[in-house]
Write a structure and sequence with these properties.
This protein is α/β, with parallel strands linked by helices and 384 residues long. Helix content is 38%, strand content 21%. The chain has 14 helices and 19 strands. The strands form 5 sheets. The chain has a 9-stranded mixed sheet with strand order 11-12-10-9-8-7-5-1-13, sandwiched between helices. Strands 14-15-16 form a 3-stranded antiparallel sheet, with no helix packed on it. β9, α6 and β10 form a beta-alpha-beta unit. The chain starts with 12 loop residues before the first strand and ends with a helix. It binds iron/sulfur cluster (SF4). Iron/sulfur cluster binds next to loops. Iron/sulfur cluster (SF4) binds next to loops.
Length: 384
């Protein structure tokens, strides 16, 4: 099988998907491979093979951000991440001004491991905390305890990694008795530079979906989702965080640069199973499962499972949706679109949006209606 055509512009933002996890969390539908022992060298070889296949006629290129997501990239360990970064430098040039992020689970994070990551070039960690309630962590099938979250943050800092992001999940079933305000208080006490807060959604074919279908759990009502989302927005703003994307908060100057490239709609490259790439016109995606991705590479083929060329209308729709997700908002003057001034006025009066002459930004209350508002606005632009 010949490789799919190369994407037009070599991207400055690179994503590497590391699919391994110890077990599947109850809510997770990501492309993962549950392994007791991670085949680190085999995986690194396959990954480098893919990069060589796609970048074969390109010189070493400068990149601004490198993001190891998953899965659980921290399962590669100190040596594994160091080996991977060392080999990636044959294709990508980056120094400490680049943002190099590794997703880590708290139970993988020791001072020694974090020091090895830091020495190899990692300068930002995204730590999956999710909750400080032990009962909730067990229910989620997380492999760590609340204490381990606090120890992980201490270890990262002791190893010299100060740029830390932490994740929490809100809108859990009421039956768990989770105290959301207490979790927000405990995460603030760790003084992270960045926070990601995600509302629980029940994805098909997850343990959660089975529990719901058997009526073993009941999803939180919309009112609980709204209450917790707005309470976090208020508390975090009062503590100096900027709510700059629907699910993301940052201290001034600490926005996630890699993820911001997705929201800014600029080019990025993704490697590894299920990874997507985008060159501002065309999107391509890899085989989702580790076994299929590895098999295609071992057979000398391309792990690309599909691609699409986006029309101008597709691009405009994506730009509007992505703009509405962020506090930067949507530039209504580019390209020229008929604006239903009455509709936008109603959004402003309802407290869902603010606008100046050319820019529309959603408020936290507007983000609670993001999909509906984005659909209304893109329906307008598609009639331009
Ligand atoms: S650790 Fe992350 S990727 Fe792995 S199963 Fe849990 S949520 Fe999914």
């Amino acid at each position: 099988m010949s490789p799919s055509p190369p994407l037009a512009s070599p991207a400055k933002h690179v994503y590497v998907h590391v699919p391994f996890c110890r077990r599947r969390c109850s809510y997770c539908d990501f492309a993962i491979a549950v392994r007791r022992t991670v085949p680190v060298n085999e995986f690194i070889d396959s990954l480098l093979h893919e990069i060589a296949l796609r970048d074969s006629d390109q010189p070493v290129r400068d990149i601004d951000t490198l993001y190891f997501g998953g899965g659980t990239p921290s399962l590669l360990g100190g040596d594994g991440v160091a080996r991977l970064l060392d080999r990636l430098r044959a294709h990508f040039r980056f120094d400490d001004r680049a943002e190099v992020t590794l997703e880590a689970n708290p139970d993988d994070l020791t001072v020694e491991t974090a020091a090895a990551w830091r020495a190899a070039g990692v300068n930002r960690l995204s730590i999956g905390a999710q909750s400080f309630d032990e009962g909730v962590l067990t229910w989620m099938h997380r492999t760590h305890s609340a204490d381990q979250i606090e120890r992980a943050v201490t270890a990262a800092r002791a190893a010299g990694i100060e740029n830390l992001s932490l994740d929490l999940i809100f809108a859990l079933p009421a039956s768990l008795g989770r105290n959301w305000d207490e979790d927000v208080r405990r995460i603030l006490a760790l003084d992270p530079a960045h926070l990601s807060l995600y509302g629980l959604t029940v994805e098909p074919a997850t343990p959660l979906a089975r529990w719901r279908d058997r009526r073993l759990m009941h999803e939180a009502p919309d009112e609980a989702y709204e209450r917790e989302f707005l309470a976090a927005d208020e508390t975090l703003a009062a503590n100096g965080f900027e709510h700059y994307e629907v699910s993301n908060y940052a201290r001034p100057g600490s926005r996630a640069r890699h993820n911001s490239s997705y929201w800014r709609h600029v080019a990025y490259d993704g490697f590894g199973p299920s990874a997507h790439s985008f060159d501002t016109r065309r999107r391509r995606w890899n085989a989702r499962e580790l076994a299929e991705w590895s098999r295609r590479l071992a057979d000398g083929g391309d792990p690309c499972a599909g691609d699409e060329v986006l029309t101008q209308e597709n691009l405009d729709t994506e730009r509007i949706y992505l703009g509405l997700r962020t506090s930067d908002g949507v530039d209504l003057a580019q390209p020229a679109q008929p604006i239903d001034a009455g509709m936008l006025e109603r959004w402003v009066e309802s407290g869902w949006a603010v606008r100046d002459r050319t820019t529309l930004r959603l408020t936290a209350r507007g983000w609670l209606r993001l999909d509906t508002l984005a659909t209304d606005l893109t329906a307008l632009s598609s009639h331009s």
